[in-house]
Please model this.
Amino acid sequence: MRLSTFTAWLALGLSSGFLWACSDPISSISSFEEAQVHLSDRLLSNINVVDNSISDTDAYNAIIPPLIEAIPDPKTYPLYGAQPTGDANTVYLEIYSSAEKANGARKDERWLVDVAEAFNRRQYKLSSGQVIQVGIRNIPSGLGAQMLGAGLGKPAGYTPAHALWVELLKADGLDVVPVAPAIVANQAVFAMQPEVYDRLATDGEVTFDRVLDDILAGNIEKVGYCNPYIASPGLNFLYTLLWRSAGHASTGAVLTVEDLNTAQTSSAFTAFQSQVTTTTPTYLDLKQIWLRQQDAFDVIVMSYQSFVGLQAQPGFDQLKHIPFGIPETSPLVAFDWTTPAQRDALKQFADFANSKEMQTLAVNHGHIQTDYLNGGSFPPIPSGDVLKAAQSFWKERKDGGKTVYMQIVVDTSGSMANAQRLTAVQDALRLASQQINTGNQIGLVTFSDRPSHQVYLAPFNELEQKRLFTAINQLRASGNTALYDGLAVGLNELMRSKQRDPDGEFYLLFLTDGQRTDGLDFKELEPVMRESEVRIYPIAYGDVNHKELEAIAALHEGQVFEGTPEKVQLLLQNLFQTNL
Amino acid sequence: MKRTLQLLKSVGLSWLAFLVVGLAIAWLAPIPKLTVLLDRSYCPANQWQQVAQAYSQLYDQHQHRRLILEQVVMVSDLGQDAFASPPTPDAVRQISTYGQRDGDRLSQLQSTYSNSEVLGCSSQN
Model:
């Protein structure tokens, strides 16, 4: 009897001990503090981290060569409709067009491509007898303006989403010739959760001013915004906000550079920025985040044409919108290099695009002539110099006094040596580093067989820029892919910084060209990433595990960016410009 | 018995007289009512603390029933927003300020609310 009791207790004790030993400490992580302890005490203790950090002396001695802004070649962007032939009986028009109407790959974003194809089929002629053929090159408005300003392309025409981009071209010294003030309806909007709209509606009509006031007053907390250097609604909103807060709505006066220096304008901008939870390069990125996570935003800035498509998605049918700013009705312009025959041809094409048949087609693509557009009460168009000043104003003050911390975690496994992958990343990082605001902190961690510290987080200044340059130059590709080990090292430094500066903003840019072959796995690090309060932007740079990268991005309203050696420069520049 | 009735009568009459006098005082000297218009146009932080201090004094009077804060309305050049009940001085201290002073809107609100006081940086100057 005694023996059997002893045996029973022994068995119970052994089972309990076994269960305890096998219990999963990971599943119990539910706070930032627990995640940090788990990361530093359990995960990192098993990882051998190499310290390759650059000494102050080496950094001081580094020489940074003059860097030219990375503007891609227009020819790398798709050309739809007719292709150039060189035929003397043909007048060929290449038109740079904003993406929301020139994306031939998407049914709801290809109105101008359809117009061009219909126009080409009908073989319209000039009085000289030459046949007009039109090609549409899909280039986002802001990028198109940058390419033209830098003299990288000479299309016959340019049709950005709105007239502000045209003013920026004029400020760059381009001689712009108007062809048509508008070819298709569109406008910028606040897309809003129905609850936010309904709350405001209880006190009367919901207007742009009331929504903006509610944001500035801090009542709307999750605002999504997009880079005003690239995105048309982003620039439109920035200008409208500054114009409105400069007090010009009552007089209709135009915004001036002096207005940007007043405390009144600056305070309104700061109040807005403090409510922005996510800034992405384009509004389509915001849309993707929202589609994945319905409660990610209360309000986002986007175009109405895209809003129509968003509203058609399951769960978004109750979404509301409030229009603002100048019309996004796609002006068409020519240049001083456009020949007289091309100008005549552009005029014919613009008339065709504005025909009843093509405008009916536009409605099917979400280009709807709204009451707002018919109302005709818009802010005046400012000069390009003011817009450039407004963009700089945004870049300098967007952090609102908060320090931004960004850890760059780069894959340097052997496969990165293929097809100039690492070289392209090195070039991209060098150029993108020009976009870092002084005082923000940037770190660099690489990983192959083991993770390696290249640059520790430190306030960005001339010395840190040199340190970053030296580190970038020294990157070499070899070995396996201890992907999550690298991520763990990068996260650990950010989390330690967050302890010291809880009000900072924390990002991790994570570039990989392959799948994990060594070290920690996704499941081991997932709870730490979840509780880290760090937004992770994975860049898929080759044959990656998309499912895992999507899961990482989704933890904190991030998204996966697709990178290629050809596009990585622009991608990193946009991400740095937007976040740093 | 008769004395008891007399006593009750005197006590009742006294209370009645007391009530009448009280009502007369309330009618002749009522507690003043006030609507506060908080002008939240841009105001440097140190000056906003003075605005919050001025509000705090009104709020104290409201707490001691020497004043009734009927409404507290925040006013900016973009719109106006009335509090459901008077906010605490701490809450007012933490309000962010932005944008331009909207004189027209403030004048219009002052005419809407017969007894109102504007509290804001510009009104402090």
Notes: Chain A has 22 helices and 18 strands.
